[in-house]
Amino acid sequence: MTTTRFAPSPTGYIHVGNLRTALMNWLIARKAGGTFILRIDDTDPERSQERYVDAIKQDLEWLGLTWDRVERQSLRLERYREAAGRLRDMGRFYEAFETPTELDLKRKKQLNMSRPPVYDRAALDLGAAERDRLRAERGPGVWRFKLDHERIEWNDGILGDISIDAASVSDPVLIRADGQVLYTLASVVDDTEMGVTHVVRGSDHVTNTATQIQIIRALGGRPPEFAHHSLLTGPQGEALSKRLGALSLRDLRARGVQPLALLSLMARLGSSDPVELRGDMAELIEGFDLGRFGAAPTRFDADDLLPLTARHLQSLPLAAVRGEVAALGVPGDLAEPFWLMARENITTLGDLAGWWHLCRDGAEPLVDEDDREFVAQALALLPEPPFTPETWARWTAQVKEATGRKGKSLFMPLRKALTGQAHGPEMAALMPLMQVVRARR
User: Fold this and answer.
1) Model confidence at 245: pLDDT above 70
2) Which of 72, 69, 55 is nearest to 18 (CA)?
3) DSSP-assigned beta bridge partners for residue 219
């Protein structure tokens, strides 16, 4: 069975970069009728916070990215310790004591000699007495996995055939000096024991994937199928990393972005297919093809979400937004005509308040100096509310006959006088909802 996972760290809110990874893994699982695991990477007790665990779940639920089960890595520490013990027993795990300053000096020396800045494995040459001395002086060391210096190869679901020389990569640290298990070891153990078959993540993980493949095989597991999607940039190609905090899902939600608008964009961004607004999750799943994605950096512009949100809202019936309409105070008998009038003229649901304010309280008239006499004459012919769908046509016909104006010079000044705006919904649909006309005061 196809099994995928999304493994966020609960140290902050999900941003668009995280979403791309979560969505692709979710779509693969759902398209195959498989399992999608939400795996909370909370092995760092100092940085992990329960409020972020709750926020991650809330954001995924808002998007409709439901999971089949939740796993917590903090509850699986014994499994990681057992795996570490097995690696020690087979001679693939060793303790190293270099300080950050010493490691930095080694890297600089290697770079000056035009060599890859990889760890030199000096710790492997330490005798038992020397290790005991360093441990007594410096405390426990870090634990590194000893890579076999061979080529690590796999067929990547996006990047194609990948081949990395393990000799060009440092032996990865899997356990810190304070005993904290790091992501690489925890992820390998979990992917193996949870039967994860497909892993999609950012292209910045390619080297990490190479080392994980060796660790998985050392532990007797079978590597999943890996795919590495392109990284996001800003709209001008600038690095997005510093802006990701401002592009959290809850910030986008606060701006009024609709879930299907966001998902429709992210499900196609970076692929050879055009972005198309999807009507529901089934369409999103059906239209997803991992093989259509490329490796080039992908530009993301949050402003692209607003036109998609507007188009999505235009397709919704009242039933989908009844709560939002009711919260404005729109009477039940006016809810349907109000929504049908307003939905074509909003970008987000937050724009509804302005249209209801206009209907309930009227608008400040917008009258050009050249039109003052004409508008005053026209308003004298306007009947008292309540208006009907026929009021606009009948009234403008009377004004045309009385003033001789026609076309834009007739309709535009009247629209601006009643609504305070030069553009907006069909007046025949708007006028029956208007309870006050300020221009008549």
Assistant:
1) no
2) 55
3) none
Give the dihedral of Cα atoms 206, 212, 217, 223; nearest 10 deg.
Answer: -60
Domain 3-232 coded CATH 3.30.43.10 = no
Whole-number percent of the chain with pLDDT over 70:
98
Choose among 52, 32, 34: nearest CA to 42.
Answer: 52
* CA pair distance 296, 289, nearest whole angstrom: 17
Q: Specify whether the CB–CB gap between 421 and 415 falls below 8 A.
A: yes
The pLDDT score that the predictor gives to residue 441 is 53
Whether the bond between 386 and the residue before it is cis, its omega within 30 degrees of 0, is yes
CA distance 418 to 137: 82
* pLDDT (mean) for 60-65: 98
What global pTM score does this model have? 0.92
The pLDDT value recorded for residue 349 is 98
Domain 362-440, classified CATH 1.10.10, yes or no: yes
Which amino acid is residue 327, in one-letter code? Answer: A
Q: What percent of the chain has pLDDT over 90?
A: 93
Q: Region 129-138: what's the mean pLDDT? A: 95
d(CA 314, CA 312) in angstroms, rounded, equals 5
> What own/partner pairs with CB < 8 Å and gap ≥ 24 does 131-139 have?
131/95, 131/97, 134/97, 135/95, 135/97, 138/97, 138/99, 139/177
Q: What is the pLDDT of residues 320-361, one digit of tens each?
A: 999 999 999 999 999 999 999 999 999 999 999 999 999 999
- Model confidence pLDDT, tens digit, residues 65-80: 999 999 999 999 999 9
Distances (CA, A) of 325 to 298, 321, 354: 37, 6, 12
Tell me the CA distances in angstroms from 46 to 39, 49, 74, one per residue in order: 18, 8, 12
May I ask the CATH class of domain 235-314?
Answer: mainly alpha
Q: DSSP string spanning 143-210? A: EEE---SSEEEEEETTTEEEEEEGGGSPPPEEE-TT-PBPHHHHHHHHHHHTT--EEEEEGGGHHHHH
* Single-letter code of the amino acid located at 50: E
Q: According to the model, what pLDDT value does residue 334 have? A: 96
CB hemisphere CA count around 189 (13 angstroms): 24
Structural domain boundaries of the chain?
3-232, 235-314, 362-440
The model's confidence at residue 247, banded by pLDDT at 50, 70 and 90, is: confident
* CA nearest neighbour of 307 among 256, 357, 342, 273: 256
Cis status of the peptide bond prior to 365, with omega within 30 of 0: no
